[in-house]
Amino acid sequence: MTDTSHNGTPKEAERERPLSAARVIRAAMEQLSELLRLPVESVSSCERAEDGAWQLSVEVLELSRIPDTTSLLASYDVELDAEGALLGYRRTRRYERGRADRR
């Protein structure tokens, strides 16, 4: 029989099992949106470091315009720990939605 918490979920298995990329992405989107008070559009990259931390690149809608192709988006580098808590973030670039990258 598995040791469970008061809500019926396995205690030890939850603590030891690493977070999935999907859960980390949701956590990053929710936390960054809450801090910036801006809508997150997407996550363009997600990598797990050797120490268990996560590095993500998140696209945020910073200024909505009409037409939508002229709206301003920004890319943020975001770091989460192994449990999904936000450790830090920084904006790396700002761009119009309708403009292609020249890199």
What is this structure, in a nutshell?
By secondary structure, the chain is of the alpha+beta class. It contains two helices and four strands; from the N terminus they run ααββββ.
Helix and strand pattern: HHEEEE
CATH topology: Nuclear Transport Factor 2, Chain: A
The portion of residues assigned to helices is 10-25%
**Which whole number gives the mean pLDDT?**
88
How much β-strand is present in the residues?
35-45%
Q: Helical element count?
A: 2
The shape, in one word, is elongated
Euclidean distance between termini CA atoms: 56 Å
Give the second-level CATH assignment, the architecture: Roll
Instruction: Identify the strand order in the major beta sheet.
Output: 1-2-3-4
What value does the Rg take, in angstroms? 17 Å
Describe the protein's architecture and organization.
This protein is α+β, with helices and mostly antiparallel strands and 103 residues long. The chain has one domain: Nuclear Transport Factor 2, Chain: A (Roll), CATH 3.10.450. It has helices at 11-16, 21-36, and strands spanning 40-48, 54-63, 72-80, 86-96. It has a 4-stranded antiparallel β-sheet. Strand 2 (54-63) and strand 3 (72-80) form a beta hairpin.
